[in-house]
Design goal:
Helix content is 47%, strand content 11%. The protein is an alpha+beta fold. α13 packs antiparallel against α14 (368-388) and α13 runs antiparallel to α16.
């Protein structure tokens, strides 16, 4: 997506500054010029009781025409007015519509119409009135598909910002819950909400996030990933620096810990910042289960996260350079299974890993009804056939299968992608340098993670730099009565960038 201003931006900006006049015909003509060749914009005229002409402009499929006719048009048909702006305000204030806003420029009315809000104009008034009446069919609140849990709330975000914000407000019933709205995208005009709790969140962090979002220069914002890529401290890092979730309970829990949430209209995924590696490895279900079972599963998750990154590389290094580390009986079995394999262990591992990744992507892209079956059957058939044909050995199939299961234990899909990417260069290092190469690759990853920041918060916090008070909820799931609420950035330095600096960084990429 091009991050540039459209060529006709100046022309559109000039049109948006045109002020309304007292002539209904002139105002309606200006709106028709703005929405030329837009067949879904409906223009309708009617007369009030005293003969005053009125004009209604709505969007077919977006505006709630039934509510518009019932709460606005029908009452106006039996009303009279004195022919000036002051009486127009009194007139529209008497309508049963719940929300009515006054505008004086063509551009403001056009922006409201593009969202779906209908507009009413009256002959003789230099102001127009817009009503919050959007009535399309929207997806109902359902259980999140990508973040299912055994125990916990079942509601998830939808594509409507007007539905998502109440899901948060329903859980956090406090006036300290602040929502800062803004619009992003010169064409899409997407509504974005920055949500935080005053008194818990760092004001500097909230201000920095708003500045970075306001500094975005893109034509359209269609998904939250565009914001994530734009405002991240290190967008080229494979590790995610913002948490994406479609669960309102996860957003609320992070808000109570002093983090900031970003909600975007048109996508069910909200963003949370700042985050660390250990917070990304935590599942919401950790806090809905018993303390002992949650702590055990958390440790299991940590172990298998490392295995998903290093297990194939360790197998390649040990079987190629360090056979003395394998018990004799097991070594004889591995040697027997590999005696007819024409490829070295490195090539064998690369073939199986690439095939497994292809099967995983095929299962995701195929229709839901057949995707899981194709993935499972394909893995079984290809693995068995490859072993029988002597292309790969049975131990390699087992190692790749355990690696795949390990990656499935990572609770965040975005965090499961880095091990899938980094696994291949580490395997190459293992095939050329042995365990020395594995350790070299692991050290480089740790160094990168040590330098990585998420809005000033060290990515390996609170392990490094060590914060003993926060370690109780990293390796073990601490009891709820020992948890205290505090800003997520306490003790860290916010990596502040001005809007101009942000734009310069993005333009250089």
């Amino acid at each position: 997506m091009a991050h540039t201003k459209p060529s006709n931006a100046a022309e559109r900006s000039a049109k948006s500054e045109i002020a309304l006049t007292n002539s209904l015909e002139a105002n309606m003509s200006e709106l028709r010029n703005v929405f030329v060749d837009c067949s879904d914009i409906v223009f309708h005229s009617f007369s009030m009781k005293d003969g005053t002409e009125c004009g209604v402009v709505s969007v077919k499929g977006l505006s709630d025409t039934q509510a518009l006719e019932r709460q606005v048009i029908a009452p106006l048909l039996v009303m009279e007015w004195e022919g000036n702006d002051k009486s127009a305000r009194r007139l529209f204030s008497r309508l049963p519509a719940s929300s009515c806003q006054e505008y004086e420029k063509i551009g403001e009315l056009a922006d409201r119409l593009c969202v779906g809000y209908p507009v009413v104009l009256v002959d003789g008034a230099s102001t127009a009135y817009s009503f919050d009446m959007i009535g399309p069919e929207q997806r109902s609140v359902e259980e999140p598909v990508a973040e299912s849990t055994v125990r916990g709330p079942r509601d998830g975000f939808t594509e409507s910002l007007g539905v998502n914000l109440p899901l948060i407000r329903k859980r956090l019933k406090t006036p300290d819950l602040k929502v800062a709205g803004m619009t992003v995208g010169s064409y899409s005009r997407t509504e974005v909400a920055v949500v935080y709790i005053k008194g818990i969140a760092d004001p500097a962090l909230a201000g920095e996030i708003k500045r970075r979002i306001e500094g975005m220069r893109i034509e359209g914002l269609l998904e939250s990933e565009s914001i994530e890529e734009w405002i991240s401290d290190n967008p080229v890092s494979p590790f995610p620096q913002l948490l994406s979730t479609e669960r309102p309970d996860v957003v609320c829990a992070n808000l109570l810990e002093g983090r900031i949430a970003i909600l975007i209209d048109g996508t069910p995924f909200a963003l949370v910042a700042p985050v660390s590696l250990f917070s990304m490895l935590q599942s919401p279900e950790d806090y809905y289960q018993n303390i002992l079972s949650s702590s055990f599963i958390r440790w299991l998750r940590y172990v298998f996260f490392v295995m998903s990154l290093l297990l194939p590389s360790a197998y390649v290094a040990i079987t190629t350079y360090h056979q003395e580390m394998i018990p004799t009986v097991l070594l004889l079995n591995i040697a027997k299974s590999r005696e007819e394999i024409p490829f070295p262990a490195l090539v064998e591992a690369l073939i199986m890993e690439i095939t497994f990744e292809a099967l995983r992507e095929a299962g995701v892209r195929l229709p839901k009804q057949v995707g899981a079956a194709v993935s499972i059957v394909g893995a079984l058939v290809i693995g068995q056939a490859a072993t029988s044909a002597g292309i790969v050995s049975a131990p390699m199939v087992i190692v790749v299968a355990i690696t795949g299961i390990s990656s499935f234990m990572i609770p965040r899909y975005s965090l499961g992608i880095p091990p899938r990417i980094l696994r291949f260069p580490i395997m190459i290092l293992a095939g050329t340098l042995g365990l020395v190469g594995v350790m070299l690759g692991f050290i480089l990853i740790v160094v990168h993670l040590s330098k990585l920041r998420s809005f000033g918060l060290p990515y390996l916090s609170p392990v490094t730099p060590t914060r003993f008070r926060e370690l109780k909820d990293v390796f073990l799931r601490s009891p709820i009565w020992t948890t205290d609420t505090k800003p997520a950035l306490s003790g860290s330095r916010l990596n502040s960038r001005t809007t101009s600096q942000t734009k310069g960084i993005r333009d250089d990429r």
